[in-house]
Design brief:
GO terms for molecular function: cyclin-dependent protein serine/threonine kinase regulator activity. It is built from 13 helices and no strands. It is mainly α. The longest helix has 21 residues.
Length: 231
């Protein structure tokens, strides 16, 4: 799906949420997920998968509850499982305002101020089921990390500043809808190109690099432009 189609046809439009508000929502739950994942000592790939699941689902209401459920799902999907009670405890601690957290799961619970932990647990399980059914149990997420490392390794750049910067750019890109528009190797190519620009490195020296990334000039330009807008 193209960026224009995403902006025009997003289900959020039916809920009265414009593109700017939707972008803010993406940034908000991605920041929450990054914080939660780090505190749970989960790999960046798992955190990224949770973000992409949220992008696919994109439910404005109960945003942090959905994000918590998405991370729990992603941890299982990426074979880095984390006990649900641990996820709940840390996510609860991140939400400084307890009233906000109660308001997140009130629609799932008849008595929000009873046994809060059990109610919160049931709410996350309910959100997990909602994500699974909405996405038709399609939890597979392919990330650009592998194609980026593979191509740069072939070019002798596997231990370079370029690789580290490109990886950071990919992580920044997770806050956007790039994963809904492009294949992983396209995003990897865009991150490598933009990183090279920052480092004043001419990748044209490495013949066939864009062929290795299986990326056309137009796709490369589009990815680079959208990555640049995030920074």
């Amino acid at each position: 799906m193209s960026r224009d189609e995403l902006e025009r046809c997003s289900p959020s439009r039916k809920d009265g949420i414009n593109h700017l508000r939707e972008t803010h929502l993406r940034y908000s739950y991605c920041a929450f997920l990054q914080n939660l994942g780090i505190q749970l000592n989960l790999p960046q790939t798992t955190i990224g998968t949770a973000m992409v699941l949220c992008h696919r689902f994109l439910f404005a209401d109960l945003m942090l509850l959905i994000a918590t459920a998405a991370l729990f799902l992603a941890a299982k999907s990426e074979e880095t499982p984390c006990p649900l009670n641990t996820v709940l405890r840390v996510s609860w601690e991140i939400c400084e305002n307890i009233i906000l957290l109660f308001s997140m799961f009130t629609p799932y619970c008849e008595y929000a101020f009873g046994d809060w932990f059990e109610q919160y647990r049931e709410s996350v399980i309910g959100a997990e089921h909602m994500i699974l059914t909405t996405l038709n149990f399609e939890l597979d997420v392919q990330h650009p990390y592998t194609p980026l490392k593979s191509v740069l390794h072939k070019l002798g750049l596997s231990q370079s500043v370029l690789l580290n910067l490109a990886l950071n750019l990919i992580n920044e890109g997770l806050r956007s809808s790039l994963w809904l528009q492009f294949k992983p190797h396209h995003i990897a190519a865009g991150a490598a190109f933009l990183a090279a620009q920052f480092l004043n490195l001419d990748l044209a020296y490495y013949q066939g690099i864009w062929h290795e990334f299986q990326t056309t000039p137009s796709i490369l330009q589009d990815v680079v432009q959208q990555l640049s807008e995030i920074l």
